[in-house]
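In the design runs reported in the main text, the only information available to the sequence generator was the tokenized backbone. The following block is the verbatim input for one such run; it is reproduced so that readers can re-run the procedure and compare outputs position by position.
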């Protein structure tokens, strides 16, 4: 069943302890779409400048990602430059140039307004609210955010969070948003404010997924090769939401939500193995199945 994503497409310049890459294609919507596309049809809403390679757009379309909602605007594409030190859970920003993304005002194609699954990437919460106002009776709406919006637009962000089913957020952001250091209490505070589920991304420490009185923790995959954690969180969200959307009209069980968490973690683990989307683009269904099996085996007791 179709899954709609609204988010950024960008050029990233990244340095990590394992190397560096200049002007590679990134952005939350890019990583999310590629990851989710392994499970379900994806509809992409974003904006790029005229400097964005047409070949990349064609490559996304060839993967079954519908780019009808992608606007090519006059100007330059959003750019981010940053680096990682030994703690790969922390990205240090050197420069952010919003460029055409600064004026981004997402408008859904009319035929997309009945899309059942919606993911709102970490864009301005005012835009997240605008998109939710355009879509009709979605089955599941999930939202991501970032420290910038928590600091700059906390009231709008809280208004957006009230309207969603699932909040996907990292552990530093959940503490910043609630002022609570304990992640379990922080997640419960957020669920009291609206969402039925809070999924906390914890980098190399895995994922904490809470709903009602249920707590599920999925480990991160131990890897021999790590180059770049950029986009791992967006890839997790893509795998997570893509798996849920693949269930179609059926009622989604607690087991389905837990498996979605594992599938999200599996897909994200490939992203960090190369710079940009390079490794994420090259997966097979067997690759993903084997990584899921590995993650499940980490917590099995014979």
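Verbatim output:
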């Amino acid at each position: 069943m179709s899954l709609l994503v609204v988010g950024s497409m960008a050029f990233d310049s990244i340095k990590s302890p394992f190397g560096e890459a200049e002007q590679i294609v990134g952005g939350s919507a890019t990583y999310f779409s590629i990851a989710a596309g392994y499970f379900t049809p994806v509809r992409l809403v974003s904006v790029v400048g005229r400097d964005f390679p047409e070949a990349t757009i064609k490559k996304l379309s060839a993967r079954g990602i519908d780019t009808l909602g992608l606007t090519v605007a006059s100007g330059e594409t959003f750019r981010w430059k940053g680096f990682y030190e030994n703690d790969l859970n922390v990205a240090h920003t050197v420069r952010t140039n919003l460029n055409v993304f600064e004026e981004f005002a997402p408008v859904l194609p009319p035929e997309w307004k009945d899309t059942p699954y919606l993911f709102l990437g970490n864009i301005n919460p005012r835009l997240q609210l605008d998109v939710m106002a355009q879509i009709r009776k979605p089955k599941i709406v999930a939202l991501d955010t970032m420290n910038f919006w928590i600091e700059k637009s906390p009231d709008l962000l809280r208004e957006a969070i009230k309207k969603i089913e699932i909040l996907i957020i990292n552990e530093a952001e959940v503490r910043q948003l609630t002022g609570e250091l304990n992640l379990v209490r922080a997640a419960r505070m957020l669920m009291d404010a609206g969402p039925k589920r809070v999924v906390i991304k914890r980098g190399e420490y895995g994922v904490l997924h809470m709903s009602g009185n249920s707590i599920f923790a999925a480990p991160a995959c131990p890897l021999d090769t790590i180059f770049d954690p950029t986009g791992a969180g967006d890839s997790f969200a893509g795998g997570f939401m893509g798996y849920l959307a693949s269930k179609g009209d059926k009622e989604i069980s607690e087991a389905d939500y837990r498996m979605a968490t594992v599938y999200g973690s599996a897909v994200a683990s490939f992203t960090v193995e190369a710079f940009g989307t390079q490794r994420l683009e090259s997966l097979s269904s067997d690759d993903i199945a084997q990584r899921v099996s590995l993650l499940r085996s980490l917590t099995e007791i014979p």
